[in-house]
Structures are given as C-alpha cells and as structure tokens.
Amino acid sequence: MGRVRISLLILGLALAFTAGTSAQNAVNVTGNWSVTPSGETLANGTVRLRQDGSAITGAFGQTGTFEGRFEPGTLQVDANWSDARGSGWMTIVFAADGRNLSGEWGRPGSRPSGHFDGVRAAYPSVSGLYYVNVTGSGEFTARRISLHQLSLDVVGNYGPGTQLNGTMAPDANSFAGTWKSPSSNGWIKLQFADDSKSLQGTWGLVPGTEPAGQITGSVLDTAQLGVKGLWQIASSGAAFGGDVLKLDQSGQTVIGAFKNGHLQATLPRGSRSMFGTWTDSHGTGVVELKFSADGMSFRGTWTRKNKNSGSIIGKRVIAATPALRQ
C-alpha cells in the first residue's frame, strides 16, 4: 500500500507540473509588437513575432531576425539574434496576459548591451485607399479599393454599387471577407504588409473553391510634403543665381524667391515632385524639383524658353532659431 501511495503521489505531482507548464505556455505571442529600447538600440518600433508551439521567430528592422524557445514552465524565451551588425543573445519575458514583454540583449559572451519593453499592437489598421491590380476572370474587377476599419471589422467598396465586408485577424495582418457587385459576389482574402501600405491576396466566387484570381496593391499616399523654409542651392547655369532659395507654401501651391528672381509651382499631395515656372534677370522658364523622402534635399532641372537648360540641387537649411525659418 505504501508503494502504491508513493506512486500515486509522484503521478499527481507530475500531472500538476505538466498542467502548470501547459497553462504558462498557453500564451500566444504571434503578432506585431511596438518595442521601445533603452541603452544601445537593437530594435525600435515594430517587431514581428511568430509562435509555433514553444518555438519563437521574430523580425525587426530591415534585416534583423531572431529565433528562440520558451523555457519549460516559464514565460521566458531565450533566443539568438542576427542582423547587419552581427549576432548575439536575447532574453524576452512575456506578461501572463500576453500583452506586454520586456527583455535584454547582448553580443556573444558579453553583458547586456541594451534593454527593451514592448506592447502588443491591438490590431493592424488598414483604413485607406489602395490602388490595385486584379487578375483572373471578369466577375471581380477593380482599380481602387477603399477600406474603412472599426476595431477588427472592415467595410469598403471598389466601385459604384459594390461592397466589401470582412474582419482582420487579431494577431496578423490578414483580412477575410466577401465582395459583392451588381452582377456577382464571392470571397476575398488579403494579406497586408506590416506597415499596411501594400497588400496581396486572392479572390473567388463560391466559398471553398479555388481562387479565381489574384490581387496586388499599394496605398494611395495623400500626405502633403512640407517644403517651406530656406534652402541652400547650387545651379549649373546662369539661372537660379545666388546660393539661397526661400520657399513659402500653402497646401499644394509653392512660391519661392532667390537672387533677382522668383518661382511659382505646384507640389501635388502624395508627391515629392514639384513643377512650376521661374523668372529672373536672365529670362523665364520651367522648373522641376524632386525632393528626397525625408524632405531635406532636392534635385531638379530648369529650362529657359530659348531651350537653354541646367541642373539645380538644394539642401534644407536648419535654422538656429524659429524666427529664421519664417
């Protein structure tokens, strides 16, 4: 009887330990996380995690990746990272509710180089207007898709008399739903990039059947680039003399002043290219400037009415005081 009791006790402890381990590892961390670093920075912003059982993989920055595994019976992941800077170790500890994390990282055989804290992104936001290319049969055709999101629910349209309805996955950038036009209807599945600025997917007619076509697209950027301020310039010819260009901006309209001359141009919303006309003591003509993605420099060309032309480059002047930026 004594041995039986001991055996039952050992079995009970083993089952209790197994149940506790399963409960602790029940957290699923797949999804996007917003990470804030302290100390030396390894990752900042969005970190993408994928969980398969106790195994974890992640991606950060342009080339960064890491792989690890939950320690048995804990919410701690020991991992190895690598990116363009090299490789090293990483430790992540998740909160029991799976909504927060904290951790540290370092290089091989060294003390921690930095720490980080993170919170799970509540859900991806895909509201916006997307330019799309649709392949397949003609039942579903679109050049633009407009989406509006409320929590995980998404509605939209892709033309007059059309409807899109569906939901986003809570821990991934995927959408599953239906489409409807005046003459047909069916299903649609979309996978969005982590920044929600591009998409790819498939569509079909009868639920459960093979896709009838594919969809790719990117968001229509409607942001207005701001170029107001002082710019240091250099020109390859007589036009645009001097070394300073002052730009003033009202929405898409830009006016500028430079030595013995001025310009008037248009900078469309969502564009980095400005087109306009210029006038100075040497004549008049047209000008095109293309600004860098960060809005801190430009390259362009100018043409005089007599067909003479030249190049112009510019760099934004970072003024010492706000008054100088007016």
Structure write-up:
- The model is unreliable at 1-24 and 320-326 (pLDDT under 50).
- By secondary structure, this protein is mainly beta.
- The protein has 3 domains: 27-120, Lipocalin; 128-219, Porin (Beta Barrel), CATH 2.40.160; 229-325, Porin.
- It has one helix at residues 2-24, and strands at residues 31-39, 45-52, 55-60, 64-70, 76-83, 86-94, 100-106, 114-120, 128-134, 144-150, 153-157, 163-168, 174-180, 185-192, 198-204, 213-219, 229-235, 244-250, 253-258, 261-266, 273-280, 283-291, 297-304, 309-316.
Provide the descriptors you would attach to this structure in a database record.
single chain, 326 residues, mainly beta, Lipocalin, Porin, 8-stranded antiparallel barrel, flat, disordered N terminus, disordered C terminus
Largest sheet descriptor: 8 strands, antiparallel, barrel
* Proportion of beta-strand residues: over 45%
What is the level 1 CATH name of the largest domain? Mainly Beta
Q: How much is the average pLDDT?
A: 84
Which structural class do the helices and strands define? mainly beta
In terms of topology, how is this protein built?
Elements: H1 2-24, E1 31-39, E2 45-52, E3 55-60, E4 64-70, E5 76-83, E6 86-94, E7 100-106, E8 114-120, E9 128-134, E10 144-150, E11 153-157, E12 163-168, E13 174-180, E14 185-192, E15 198-204, E16 213-219, E17 229-235, E18 244-250, E19 253-258, E20 261-266, E21 273-280, E22 283-291, E23 297-304, E24 309-316
Antiparallel strand pairs: 1-2, 1-8, 2-3, 3-4, 4-5, 5-6, 6-7, 7-8, 9-10, 9-16, 10-11, 11-12, 12-13, 13-14, 14-15, 15-16, 17-18, 17-24, 18-19, 19-20, 20-21, 21-22, 22-23, 23-24
